[in-house]
TrEMBL record:
Protein name: Uncharacterized protein
Amino acid sequence: MKTSNLYRQIWRSFMRTIRHIWQPLRSRKPCSASLCALVAGALTVLAAPGAYAADLARQTIGPISYVCGGVGEDEQQALQSEAKDFDMGLLFTEGARGEYLSDVAVTLSRNGVNVASFRSNGPRCLIKAPRATYQVVATYNGVDKHTTLRAGERSVQLNW
C-alpha cells in the first residue's frame, strides 16, 4: 500500500470515529459533563501526534525479533531510536521515485528453513536475529522479491 493511501485510510477511519461520536451530540439536548469529558478525551487521544507510533511494538518469533513501521514522521523517529537494538533492516518501496510501501509479506529463511514470517505495517522493518545469512522473500501484490540479509545490513531496499 502506498504511503498516501495509508494516510488516506487513517484519515477516513479517524473521520468515521469523529462522526460516530459527534452524531448523538448534534441533538439540541445538552450533554452531561461525563459524556463531554469522554468525547474530549477521545478526540485528544485520536489527534495526538504520536498516536500511531504506539503501534511500533517489538514482535518475537523464536529467536527473531522485529519491528515494522515508519509511515509518519513520528514513527520514523521512533524507529530511529529503536535502531540501536537491531542489526538488520529492510526498506520497501515502489516505482522510480521510491514511494514507501506497507502491507508486505516477509519470510526469512536460513539454510532453507523458514525461521520467521510476518506482514509489514510500514515501509521499514528492523530485525534482530542470531548472526547468520538469511534469505528474504518479500511479497507485495502477488509479486515476490528476493534478497539476502546479514548482520550489519540495516537498509536493504526492495523496490517493486
